[in-house]
Design a protein that fits this description.
The complex is a heterodimer of chains A (539) and B (352). With 539 residues, chain A is mainly alpha-helical. Helices cover 76% and strands 1% of the residues of chain A. Chain A has a two-stranded parallel ribbon with strand order 1-2. The model of chain A has no long low-confidence stretch (mean pLDDT 85). Chain B has 2 domains: 231 residues, Rossmann fold (3-Layer(aba) Sandwich), CATH 3.40.50; 109 residues, Nucleic acid-binding proteins (OB fold (Dihydrolipoamide Acetyltransferase, E2P)). In chain B, helix 3 packs across helix 4 and helix 4 runs parallel beside helix 5. Chain B is globular and about 80 Å long. In chain B, 40% of the residues are buried. The chains are: A mainly alpha (539), B alpha+beta (352).
């Protein structure tokens, strides 16, 4: 294939991947549906308020969790710092709905905490006699989400603090500013662009969360999308609500852009970084705060999951789990292989083409990652059902039996959604590995008369094979964990590992599926470990 | 002259460790009012650590640092960096990248915004950076950043200014002028300063006094000439510029003699006792070459560097480096020459 054919291939596949987003946008111009009007007049304003509250609270809590520990780990010396710097990443592997379940169980009226309190203080057994905080509400959901999302901000803020180096703060102090003034006037303003990027990411994740809020019976835009589609079967109402969410994401992104526009050229300073050697109560406080986050976000939920597993193992070994694992595995492998192959096509085309626009297919296909997966699932359904209806009509007109929902009713929809959603993950990994291959190798191969395909298969792929397996693995894990899209798009009676676990969560029976939940957590640990490793290399 | 009455900063037997390794070992130093002191030494000799200890960024294990009589640091007591009134300028200048030049200079001034602005503008004028107030540091050259860093450091009216390798990130051709300008500014402000470098050229141009450091101690302290002409250690002698090492003996009339050059017109300092096994350090410009077809030395190699010409000459079993003022007549390689030593005070060390 010559360069032109590669370009056509890249553009065509990229176009397929952005098709859902385009159809969703087109949907916003469609006439209003009855259901949407009804929702708009009744509950939707409340849902919007809930959503805004949830997202703002998640951002506030994440900042309160992440920024102090990022500062401590980057700038201070205290007992256990070496371990905390990666332990603090672990909560990323914990699905928020599992954390939510575990804490509900713990703080429930019938849970161990309240039982102990009642026994200790001789409380009345009747419900409502004594006040105890409620976690099944918007602030509760926000804490649960922040507990597992804060590591994104922690990671990015820690790197930013480290890059400032020691000199700026030392100069600030020699100019008469106290450590706190230096933190406020120098360290935080310098780190602000990085903090905003981290918050944008967390905001988008919180906006798209379905499982936690649904479990807490908090109604947000995400739950409204589910109700519209799964409850009322109205794709157009679901699409309209999705567009509202998309506007939310765009607003968050716009804030980030605006911030970045004001960002100046920032130098990277090097040199020693641990400025403050903490001792006494300060050191204890620092270690305790880090330990508390790791404990609350990972260790405690993991321990409770383990105890559930041990308890339920004896009387209920679910044979269904094997089937679910197998289904999830082949689905995830299929999606992972497709995304990685596409990523290779995009990167290779960009490499051999001399046009600046050749980078666009990869960039366009990565954009869907910022779409909440609930929105994405609805977006995937729109072109699919349209295509099916048209084809069915055509078939009937031609006198054949209608083929039915051969796309949206099968795993095809799920695989397609996974590919669209996680293309960015594969693109990122593959692109950076291509950059590490010297361009003079291409010229050498070409000068020896090799074709594009020979260049790709005998030079590039052998050189980047490690990254290829990494990309496959990362996408595989993401697919395994992905819940909202799987819930919306799975065929009847079909479960992935995540929907299987969530089914038990929403039936208040996570104990039965604790082992499956542990599998999700273990799978989630791999990308976290990789993140910490690359983080360590850059520092 | 440094007398007790006009001492600004005094370091008494200070010891500092960094990551469990001793870096400063009983270091003592005195800096007078309005004096610019240079800490000179190889990397790893403890120069930067000394600055950080003075700034209060590192704790002392032993000793005392006093400023105008007040104890700033001791093994038990440490005044916070922000309460010392000592400004520090780093090699990378450490200008705050999120602030304009004017904001950077205003940063440490404790006064109303208007007063701070006035003062900052005056300082920017002093360092010839008046036009750059609204500019961000990333848009400045190394030399310009250096000037801003000086203005910012002076803005708090520091009692002492510390400069850590301040000229190493500045373009070579701007360095000389920048050093003279900044020296003038410091003198105008009557601000005593300590600056750290490993370059003797910078030390000679910028400082009033030099202190040469080796393994955490000051080996020798004094004006540039005394370190250059009367170095107290072989490593200091070499740091002040390359030269030739000759095995010599002291003669009865206080001169030295060596195998191929005979008795040298170099007087032996009579304040020290020497054994018979000595080595003498002679700089290339203390030797003179003269073409002589029957001379006992031979030119084997030469380099030309504009102002001077370097010759490598073989004399018996020894090889000598000789520099001459360059002229357009050179001695060809292979030509025979006479080598004579100019009369000077001998730099002598025991042979090890």
């Amino acid at each position: 294939m010559n360069n032109k054919k590669w370009l056509i291939l890249a553009w065509a596949t990229s176009f397929c991947l952005i098709l859902p987003a385009l159809f969703l946008l087109a949907q916003s111009f469609a006439p209003d549906t009855e259901l949407f009007d009804h929702l708009w007049e009744t509950v939707l304003p409340d849902y919007i308020v809930n959503t805004l509250q949830l997202v703002s609270l998640v951002l506030i809590f994440s900042a309160l969790f992440a920024i102090p520990v990022a500062w401590l780990v980057a700038m201070c010396d205290f007992p256990g710092k070496r371990y905390f710097q990666w332990l603090l990443m672990l909560p990323l592997a914990m699905p928020a709905y599992v954390v939510a379940y575990v804490y509900t169980d713990l703080f429930d009226f019938a849970g161990p905490i309240q039982r102990v309190l009642r026994a200790l203080f001789q409380w009345d057994v009747a419900v409502g006699q004594h006040w105890f905080f409620e976690i099944r509400n918007v602030p509760g959901a926000a804490v649960m989400l922040a507990l597992v999302l804060y590591p994104y901000l922690y990671l990015i803020a820690r790197t930013a603090f480290l890059e400032q180096g020691a000199h700026l703060l030392q100069v600030s102090r020699s100019l008469g500013q106290s450590p706190w003034q230096s933190f406020k006037r120098v360290a935080v303003p310098l780190c602000r662009p990085a903090i905003v990027v981290g918050l944008v990411f967390i905001g988008a994740e919180a906006l798209g969360d379905f499982a936690t809020v649904h479990y807490f019976a908090v109604n947000t835009l995400t739950t409204a999308v589910y109700d519209s589609w799964l409850g009322h079967g109205s794709l157009s109402a679901a699409a309209k609500i999705s567009i509202l969410m998309l506007i939310g994401v765009m607003a968050i992104l716009a804030v980030e852009r605006w911030q970045r526009g004001r960002q100046r050229y920032y130098h990277k300073y090097t040199g020693q970084t641990a400025l403050f050697h903490l001792s006494g109560w300060q050191a204890k406080g620092a270690s305790a705060y880090c330990a508390l986050l790791v404990f609350a976000g990972f260790i405690l939920p993991a321990l409770i999951l383990l105890s559930y597993t041990l308890k339920s193992m004896s009387f209920n070994t679910d044979s269904q789990l094997g089937v679910v694992l197998l289904q999830t595995a082949w689905l995830a492998i299929l999606a992972a292989v497709i995304t990685t192959a596409l990523a290779i096509i995009f990167s290779f085309t960009n490499r051999i083409s001399r046009q600046a626009s050749a980078a666009l297919p990869s960039k366009l296909s990565s954009m869907s990652y910022m779409m909440p997966s609930t929105v994405l699932a609805i977006a995937v359904l729109i072109p699919m059902t349209l295509f099916e209806i048209t084809l069915n009509d055509l078939w009937v007109w031609l006198g054949f039996d209608a083929p039915g929902l051969f796309l949206s009713g099968t795993v095809f929809a799920l695989v397609f959604a996974f590919v669209v959603r996680f293309q960015a993950v594969a693109n990122g990994t593959i692109e950076s590995s291509f950059l590490a291959v010297s361009p003079s190798l291409d010229m050498a191969a070409k000068s020896m008369g090799k074709s594009n395909q020979q260049l790709l298969f005998s030079i590039h792929i052998p050189l980047i094979r490690k990254s290829i397996s990494t990309a496959v693995l990362l996408v595989f894990i993401e697919c395994m964990k992905e819940l909202p899209a799987a819930l919306l798009l799975r065929p009847f009676n079909f479960d992935t590992l995540a929907t299987y676990v969530y089914q038990y969560v929403s039936d208040e029976q996570l104990e039965q599926a604790a082992f499956a939940a542990i599998l999700i957590v273990l799978a989630g640990l791999y990308p976290v470990i990789r993140l910490t490793q690359t983080g360590e290399r850059t520092t | 002259m440094t007398t007790d009455s006009n001492i600004a900063l005094q370091l008494d037997h200070i010891s500092v460790s960094y990551q469990q390794k001793p870096v400063l070992d009983m270091l003592s130093l005195r800096i007078a009012d309005n004096e610019i002191m240079c800490l000179l030494g190889q990397s790893g000799s403890g120069k930067t650590t000394a600055l950080k200890a003075i700034a209060g960024l590192l704790p002392l294990l032993h000793g005392e640092i006093r400023l105008n009589g007040e104890v700033l640091s001791s093994a038990k007591h440490c005044v916070m960096p922000e309460q010392r009134g000592i400004s520090i300028i780093f090699q990378d200048f450490a200008l705050f990248p999120h602030m304009t030049v004017l904001e950077n200079v205003c940063f440490g001034i404790k006064a109303s915004a208007q007063v701070a602005n006035e003062k900052a503008k005056a300082l920017l004028a002093l360092v010839k950076m008046s036009d750059y107030g609204p500019v961000y540091p990333s848009e400045l050259s190394g030399g310009q950043q250096q000037r801003v860093a000086i203005a910012r450091a002076l803005a708090t009216d520091p009692k002492v200014l510390l400069l850590d390798e301040p000229f190493s990130n500045v373009d070579h051709h701007l360095k000389e002028q920048l050093m003279l300008d900044i020296r003038k500014v410091l003198k105008q402000h009557h601000t005593p300063a300590i600056f750290v470098t490993h370059s003797k050229e910078e030390a000679f141009t910028f400082a009033d006094k030099l202190a040469f450091m080796e393994s955490g101690k000051v080996i020798q302290e004094g004006i540039a000439e005394s370190l250059y002409f009367q170095p107290s250690s072989a490593s200091l002698a070499e740091s002040m510029g390359e030269g030739n090492w000759l095995k010599v003996e002291v003669t009865e009339d206080g001169l030295t003699k060596c195998p191929y050059l005979g008795t040298l017109p170099t007087s032996v300092p009579n304040d020290q006792q020497y054994s018979s096994t000595l080595r003498q350090f002679i700089r290339p410009n203390q030797l003179v070459l003269e073409a002589n077809p029957t001379g006992n030395a031979e030119v084997i190699e030469q380099t030309f560097n504009g102002e001077s010409r370097y010759y490598f000459v073989r004399l018996g079993k020894i090889e000598l480096r000789v520099s001459t003022v360059s002229n357009n007549v050179s001695l060809p390689n292979g030509s025979l020459v006479d080598v004579t030593v100019l009369s000077h005070r001998a730099i002598l060390f025991e042979r090890t």
